[in-house]
Amino acid sequence: MFDNIEFANPQFFWLLLLLPAAILWYILTRKGQVASLKISSIKGFKSTSILPKLKPLLFVLRLLALAAIITALARPQTEDISTRTKTTKGIDIVMAIDVSSSMLARDLKPNRLSALKEVASDFIKQRPSDRIGLVAYAGESYTKTPITSDKSIVLGALREITYGQLEDGTAIGMGLATSVNRLKESKAISKVIILLTDGVNNSGFIEPQTAADLAVEYDIKTYTIGLGTNGNALTPIAYKRDGTFQYGMRQVEIDEKLLKNIAEVTGGQYFRATDNEKLEEIYNEINKLEKTEIEEFKYYKYEEMFRPLVFLAGLLLFLEWGLRTTVFKSFI
After folding, report:
1. What number is the average pLDDT over the span 48-69?
2. Banded model confidence at residue 1, pLDDT cuts 50, 70, 90
3. Burial class of 295 by CB neighbour count within 10 A (0 to 12, 13 to 18, 19+)
4. CA distance 273 to 101
5. How far is 79 from 26, CA to CA, in rounded Å?
6. DSSP characters for 7-64?
7. Kind of pairing, strands 190-197 and 91-98?
8. Which single residue of 22, 87, 262, 302 has CA 20 to 30 Å from 66?
9. Over 80: is that where the pLDDT of 46 sits?
């Protein structure tokens, strides 16, 4: 019950040094406060009453009352803090994710798509004040989730993204154009696309350069990520009779020149992720580059707790006075 109690005037606790001084004074002066009578025998004055031995109780009650008063002067109080945040610079982000068959390559563990989903999930959780949307693309593209501030919806949609939902291929222009379409009406001060691919544009009816020009027109910054190891990777190359993929080593081909150009003309940056750790570092870097400015307001509510202590001190003093004038009257 005392965890949330603070003291507004803790300097008054120095007065507690009066207590040991008062105890010392009481011990030194107690003998002088008791009347003595010298007689030849005290046989006739012997009493079985224990009240004389309890007389120091009156002094103890005074000390407790003094301690309660000093504590009350220190102003114990509870503090209730409520916080309200105001986003002063909101960011709308669309993550464009390549879901072509090559994203099942195993140069990242367990494969490129699964590694991306894990890292992207952490990125989304670190953007509590931003609106985020998802676009999936392969040979064509579609909006998986419009921009929303509900992160549970975005995370759920991200988990649902798998290979096979779209015609195979790599339509970078389509993925970028769909992302631009999701952001062009946004009123956010900053609009960002994070486009990831592991291949070369080979599908779709919108050229990547045309989509990049649209991004520039709507003032949308684009970060591009090329995903895949340098050299060869274990990649799906054919279907087996049971419908599963047959894997084989294949040269990793990423159109880095195109991705760099898209990033440059839109004011973003290009990154190359060759393994799980590098992919995580890239998303952390983007997270640092795109900061949301948040203004925080704190409201403090104090509740004074000294009144019960003053009441307790008064009660102790009243009890001491009552005992002094009644029960202990004959011994004072």
Report:
1. 78
2. very low
3. exposed
4. 18
5. 39
6. ES-GGGGGGGGHHHHHHHHHHHHHHHHS-----S--GGG-----HHHHTHHHHHHHHH
7. parallel
8. 302
9. no
**Phi, psi (rounded to 5 degrees) for 6:** -125, 165
**Residue 83: what pLDDT?**
66
- Quote the pLDDT of residue 25: 85
Judge whether 135 and 162 are in contact, CB under 8 Å. no
CA angle 94, 190, 162 (to 5 degrees): 5
Q: Which residues contact 27 (CB under 8 A, 6 or more apart)?
A: none
Sorted by sequence, the CB contacts under 8 Å of residue 218 that are 6+ apart come out as: 180, 183, 184, 191
Q: What are phi and psi of 188, to 5 degrees?
A: -65, 150
What pTM was computed for the model? 0.65
HEC per residue, 92-154: EEEEEEECCHHHHCCCCCCCHHHHHHHHHHHHHHCCCCCEEEEEEECCCEEEEEEEECCHHHH
Q: From CA 163, how far away is CA 105, in angstroms rounded?
A: 12
Q: Please state, in angstroms and rounded to a whole number, the distance separating the CA atoms of residues 148 and 93.
A: 9
CA distances from 294 to 90, 91, 130, 297, 324 (A): 9, 11, 11, 10, 64
